[in-house]
Write a structure and sequence with these properties.
The protein is of the alpha+beta class. The chain has one domain (9-64). Helices cover 36% and strands 38% of the residues. The protein has one helix at residues 41-64, and strands at 9-21, 25-36. A two-stranded antiparallel sheet has the order 1-2. It is elongated and about 45 Å long.
């Protein structure tokens, strides 16, 4: 995370994992943890849980477009 950029993030951590997949393809897993400034943990957790389903649906829609 670029700390010089003016934003509302207190912290951002993420990772990529790459796995061999049949047919000469690669399966990619990405994970992240975001912390927002001046927002209580319980509110952050509520938005994170709701955001996961929405994000996965968006990725699925994109993948299905071919």
């Amino acid at each position: 995370m670029d700390k010089s950029f003016n934003n509302d993030l207190a912290d951002l951590q993420g990772f990529w994992k790459l796995y061999p997949y049949p047919g000469g393809r690669t399966l990619v897993q990405y994970g992240s943890n975001v912390s927002i400034k001046n927002v209580p943990d319980w509110i952050e957790n509520m938005f994170k849980k709701k955001g996961v389903e929405k994000s996965l649906n968006c990725v699925k829609k994109y993948v299905n477009t071919g």
